[in-house]
Amino acid sequence: MHSYASLIFLLFFSFLTSFGAYAKDPNFLYHSCPNTTTYSRNSTYSTNLIALLSSLSSRNASYTTGFQNATEGKSPDRVTGLFLCRGDFSPEVCRSCVAFSVNQTLTMCPDARRAVLYYEECMLRYSDNNIMSTLSFGGGYILLNANNISSNLEDRFGDLVSSTMNQAAVEAASSPRKFNATKAKWTTLQSLYVLVQCTPNLRRQDCLSCLQYSINGMALNSMGGRLLYPSCSSRYELSPFYNETSVSTQPHQQALPPLLPPSASPVASPPRSGKGGNSNMLVVAIVVPIIVAVLLFIAGYCFLAKRAHKNSDTQQAFDGDDITTEESLQLDYRTIQAATNNYSENNKIGRGGFGEVYKGTLSNGSEVAVKRLSKSSGQGDTEFKNEVVVVAKLQHRNLVRLLGFSLEREERILVYEYVPNKSLDYFLFDPTKQAQLDWTRRYKIIGGIARGILYLHQDSRLTIIHRDLKASNILLDKDMNPKITDFGMARIFGLDQTQENTSRIVGTYGYMSPEYAMHGQFSMKSDVYSFGVLVLEIISGKKNNSFYGTNGTHDLLTYAWRLWSNGPVLDLVDPMIVENCQKSEVIRCIHIGLLCVQEDPVERPTMPAIFMMLTSNTVTLQVPRQPGFFVQSRLEQDPLDSDQSTTSKYVSGSVNDSSITDLYPR
Ligand SMILES: *[C@@H]1O[C@H](CO)[C@@H](O)[C@H](O)[C@H]1NC(C)=O
Ligand SMILES: *[C@@H]1O[C@H](CO)[C@@H](O)[C@H](O)[C@H]1NC(C)=O
Ligand SMILES: *[C@@H]1O[C@H](CO)[C@@H](O)[C@H](O)[C@H]1NC(C)=O
Ligand SMILES: *[C@@H]1O[C@H](CO)[C@@H](O)[C@H](O)[C@H]1NC(C)=O
Ligand SMILES: *[C@@H]1O[C@H](CO)[C@@H](O)[C@H](O)[C@H]1NC(C)=O
Ligand SMILES: *[C@@H]1O[C@H](CO)[C@@H](O)[C@H](O)[C@H]1NC(C)=O
Ligand SMILES: *[C@@H]1O[C@H](CO)[C@@H](O)[C@H](O)[C@H]1NC(C)=O
Ligand SMILES: *[C@@H]1O[C@H](CO)[C@@H](O)[C@H](O)[C@H]1NC(C)=O
To answer: Which of 328, 411, 439, 607 is the most exposed place for a label (fewest CB within 10 A)?
Structure first.
């Protein structure tokens, strides 16, 4: 398709201008100048146009406001023009963008009576119509970030973008400059940045209509987007693309040296037909991943080639605001050493299957969790980096985010977002803290964990099997929302991924499904099993692998199954919460938990099904079969820390296989 080719060209052009030349050429975005209405060279119109361009760019004062309009000649050869600089740019940037666009337009749009040129920094427009009094949605142009928000967050994200932008639009329409730039919190680490602007000649209502029209025209499931119209433009991103300092301070008041009038003459310009078609055409730019890959490659290359070149934040729509690359993730070893006080004991906050975890504070004050991997990883550096990039791309509010890594000689470090509260087991299994988790909270935690696993299994681009879900791998943020950690560790550690059968078992007894513990067979259904154990633990407040029940039961699952079969089922519930719980919710959760821990993996529900069961009361639940479990003789160890246990035996139920006919037992 022709427009694709042009788009690729545009992308490369804007990309190279932002990365290649530090010479501060403005970043070209798009132009629209239909060749249907043209003027002839040496005509009065031509003379008027040149005079207009010169007059537009020669007014000193206009650069402080970022807007100027001008008119030359008399009808029918009258030409009206204007420029508008983006509200956050300094007068200097505005001035050079206008100079550049005035110079370029006669080359880009030779002979066209009407033209609009869009740059990141400014917009230049002229016409034989009186554009000052009309509102124009024509010749709009959409640019979308090629990354979409994951589908389960789309609605929430769309709501946030839409409400933030609409509020900014109202602010802008009422302000004299017809400009607003603002941000809103999206996640703990990410904010949404929006910028809206109209040409200041518009009336309040016209500005508002134009902006609302542009906001409605934008796909809100993308990680960033902008829509450019002659009368207004709007943009949102998940990274700060505008100058936050300048939007929060007063407009600049300094005077500037005069500008030379443009030197190009239309006669000298090589003819080049305008691109863009009729003025109502909406060019939708959706970039195919290949282009992004190529751009990323160039970005990486340029980044390496020009490390010192730090002003690369001028063009961001396509250079991957949030595209995770190895370069963007690699952190300096000394930074981490400093952040953790050289891994001081005081900073140690935990120990997992893969190494020790420290709390760190970076020089900018932000807190991180630093995991120092134990040295036994058999993986090469390249594979390690590749896997870190893959795992860092997994972003969900119920997953602890991997922020970066460091690699120095033998030392491998992973840096995570810091989650303030401790892990779930810290609260759940401590008689003095259990009460902090009432049923409502526990129910939310179950839902959050389910969302997180669902994302790992289904919504992320690849299927990630956690393989070590357990209460100590569920961290709680300050609002007690669960965040799963340690996912993707098998990948990062270079364990078998391709075969669904592994000799190296990553997991924790008590949470491992029988087929995984016995035969090393893992699948999404082994995570489902662990989830079931977690649910039963959350309900009962008891730990599966150190359970001493009444009537000789030695594990939580048998105990739960007995109560389910013979009642009273509510005896399973943590006495701390049983008084004030929603009985039907609790019983439904026990039911779901038991479905998850069934012996036959095929019988266990999938994560999407579990999610449905949790969120909708109308979904009918199957009758659970007896749990399958794996008993290890009272050894509480992470298998990675010790040799594979030889003292394990497989136990398949110790209760009668009585079939249950009531959906909910007494
Ligand atoms: C306008 O440009 C198109 C190509 O972009 C060309 O095919 C067409 O002939 C041009 N029309 C005029 C009137 O020059
Ligand atoms: C434009 O006018 C100049 C003199 O004013 C003349 O030399 C030139 O040939 C003219 N060009 C065209 C294309 O008519
Ligand atoms: C700009 O436009 C306004 C409104 O149309 C007009 O009053 C004013 O004279 C124009 N300014 C210039 C410099 O042409
Ligand atoms: C205008 O463009 C010409 C060549 O295209 C260049 O020599 C000149 O410096 C430019 N002027 C400005 C002000 O950028
Ligand atoms: C993003 O979503 C749009 C539909 O809104 C779809 O056409 C496009 O392929 C998606 N892009 C990616 C990279 O998933
Ligand atoms: C944008 O609007 C908000 C209020 O919603 C205001 O606080 C902020 O100062 C405005 N920003 C600019 C650049 O005008
Ligand atoms: C942002 O704006 C401030 C104040 O106008 C200016 O000092 C600073 O250089 C700008 N930063 C960038 C990156 O342009
Ligand atoms: C622009 O400013 C310079 C001094 O900075 C002054 O000499 C010149 O006359 C001004 N031009 C206009 C059109 O105001």
So the answer is: 411
Residue 185 confidence (pLDDT):
86
| Ligand 2 atom closest to residue 41's alpha carbon, by position in its atom list | 13
Which residues, other chains included, contact 466 with Cβ-Cβ below 8 Å and sequence gap of 6+?
A: 453, 456, 473, 484, 486, 487, 527, 530
Weakly modelled stretches of the chain, pLDDT under 70: 1-24, 137-139, 249-324, 352-353, 375-378, 459-461, 494-506, 546-553, 630-666
283 neighbors 276 (Cβ within 8 angstroms): yes
Whether 425 is catalytic is no
Q: What is the pTM of this model?
A: 0.47
Residue 61, CA atoms < 13 Å, CB-side half-sphere: 1
User: How high is the pLDDT of residue 548?
Assistant: 63
CATH topology of domain 424-660: Transferase(Phosphotransferase); domain 1 (1.10.510)
Distance 289 CA to ligand 5 centre (A): 10
pLDDT of residue 628: 84
**Homologous superfamily in CATH for domain 147-253:** Gnk2 domain, C-X8-C-X2-C motif (3.30.430.20)
What Cα–Cα distance (Å) separates residue 97 from each residue in 92, 102, 143? Answer: 9, 8, 20
Kindly report the CA angle at 359 between 510 and 352, in degrees rounded to 5?
A: 20
Question: Would the CA dihedral through 212, 214, 217, 219 be positive or negative?
Answer: negative
Maximum distance among all Cα pairs of the chain, rounded to whole angstroms:
103
pLDDT at 137: 67
Backbone torsions φ then ψ of 430, nearest 5 degrees: -110, 115
Annotated active-site residue in 468, 477, 486, 527: 468
CATH for 326-417 is 3.30.200.20
Distance 315 CA to ligand 6 centre (A): 23
Structure tokens that stand for 631 in this block = 């008993």
Q: Is the distance from the beta carbon of residue 212 to the nearest atom of ligand 5 less than 6 Å?
A: no
Per-residue b or e along 391-408, where b marks 16 or more CB atoms closer than 10 Å to that residue's CB: bbbbbbbbbbbbbbbbee
The pLDDT, as a whole number, for residue 150 is 82
- Strands of the sheet containing 355-361, edge to edge, are 348-352, 355-361, 367-373, 411-417, 402-408
User: What is the three-class DSSP state of 585?
Assistant: helix
What CATH architecture does domain 23-127 belong to? 2-Layer Sandwich (3.30)
